[in-house]
Design a protein that fits this description.
With 336 residues, the protein is of the alpha+beta class. It is globular and about 55 Å long.
């Protein structure tokens, strides 16, 4: 008897692990002190394209009829202007595939990610590198892949190459893959380790918000830290926040390293992309937590490529979730 989405789960893990290897190869080859000093983002551009090519190639192999909502397209790699970048992308992509891919195959794979999304049928959504500045600093970034069926996230995988397997040992072994399938729970395993053992993960059991801690972005542009401070005051939170980039924050909350993740709107016009939240959303829920927008409404992944029906994100354990939502509403007070 087959298990629901068993094949999809295995393929998604393979894809995310392969893309994570590409990202690590790009970092080792292309990220230098000079690129950081000059704020040169070209390495992360190579990693973005290469990771998307690798994931989309694997998905096409196993699920050729499944469309993909991806972040990138190949237009910046075309012609003489894109030659240098294109050659780097093809070279790095081929470090993580079993059968070498031609330039044409790499470009075609990247462009498989142009699906519009929607409320019917099944499609994947991919963020090849979430947390670009974390990637460039050698800190937290994530490769995120989710399967959406009839507008709901059913499967999510997040690869976090630099996340400690045990946050109580921050200098210990690093590399975490978190995975969740609807109604099957959430798990973590060591990233790119053959003799893997999956262990269940669960959100914290904190019952009083004054004992909770936030998991917040390192980058101020991704969150309104002033509003976060007001919310923390309302909740009586005094613990230092856990700060990291990317959907690694979802993983941190899902396994109880922190208790609350807020993605507060920075302005009224900004709309979240589905690939930034789909995988993390189901991992939190399957770990026993709850996720909503800042108005307490569930995230709606049926609207296409964006979460156009929602503003911001709140994730927390079920014990304190309602209290957190009320504090957010009181702080934002109809701003959004």
């Amino acid at each position: 008897m087959s298990v629901y989405l068993e094949k999809e789960r295995a393929v998604a893990i393979e894809a995310v692990e392969s893309a994570s290897r590409v990202c690590e190869a790009v970092f080792k080859r292309l990220v230098t002190d000079e690129t950081l000093t000059k704020k040169d983002k070209s390495p992360v551009t190579v990693a973005d394209f290469s990771a998307q090519a690798v994931v989309n190639n694997i998905l096409e192999k196993y699920f050729p009829n499944d469309p993909i909502v991806g972040e990138e397209d190949s237009k910046d790699l075309l012609g003489e202007e894109g030659r240098v970048l294109r050659e780097k992308v093809v070279e790095l992509t081929n470090t993580a595939v079993n059968t070498p891919m031609s330039t044409e195959e790499v470009l075609k794979a990247i462009d498989r990610g142009q699906y519009a999304g929607g409320s019917t049928g099944r499609h994947w959504t991919l963020d090849p590198i979430d947390g670009t500045k974390g990637f460039l600093r050698g800190e937290q970034f994530a490769v995120c892949l989710a399967l959406i069926i009839d507008g709901k996230v059913r499967l999510g995988v997040v690869g976090c190459p630099n996340l400690p397997y045990d946050m109580s040992q921050p200098e210990g072994e690093k590399g975490v893959l978190a995975v969740a399938v609807e109604k099957q729970g959430a798990f973590q395993r060591k990233l790119n380790v053959k003799d893997f053992i999956e262990t269940p993960i669960f959100v914290s059991i904190v019952e009083d918000s004054c004992n909770a801690s936030f998991c917040e972005s390192v980058e101020a542009g991704h969150a309104n830290h002033g509003d976060s401070a007001k919310i923390a005051e309302l909740l009586g939170i005094t613990k230092q926040s856990v700060r990291m980039d990317s959907q690694c924050k979802y993983v941190a909350v899902a396994r109880g390293d922190a208790d609350i993740y807020l993605r507060l709107p920075v302005d009224s016009k900004y709309v979240e992309k589905i690939w930034d939240h789909a995988a993390g959303n189901i991992i939190i829920q399957e770990a026993g937590g709850q996720v909503s927008d800042v108005n307490g409404e569930p995230l709606d992944f049926s609207q296409g490529r964006t979460l156009s029906a929602n503003k911001g994100v709140i994730a927390a354990n079920a014990n304190i979730f309602g209290t957190v939502v009320e504090a957010v509403k009181a702080t934002l007070s109809n701003k959004f």
